[in-house]
Design a protein that fits this description.
- By secondary structure, this protein is mostly helical.
- It has a domain of about 35 residues.
- It has two helices and no strands.
Length: about 80
């Protein structure tokens, strides 16, 4: 499959559509972009601590739900035992 670009248009291609970009307008718009303001500084220690906390929270939820399902005779059959 081939596609054309703005400088070289192909007549024989697998699809017949065209994306129209107004490059001058896009460039003007991009020149007016402003950097996103920094709200707070994050370092690797904070990110790692958050990751470990989320991982622990997920494990706690899994254990709580497994216990709930095991103690409910109506839902016990939903668990698949491995091994």
């Amino acid at each position: 499959m081939v596609a054309d670009n703005q400088d070289f248009k192909l007549t024989l291609k697998a699809f017949h559509s065209e994306i129209i970009n107004y490059h001058k307008s896009l460039k003007k718009e991009q020149e007016n972009y402003q950097p996103i303001p920094e709200i707070r500084k994050l370092d690797n220690i904070i990110v790692q601590r958050n990751y470990l906390q989320i991982k622990q929270d997920v494990q706690d939820i899994i254990q709580a739900e497994m216990g709930r399902l095991l103690n409910d005779q109506g839902q016990k059959h939903l668990l698949i035992k491995k091994g």
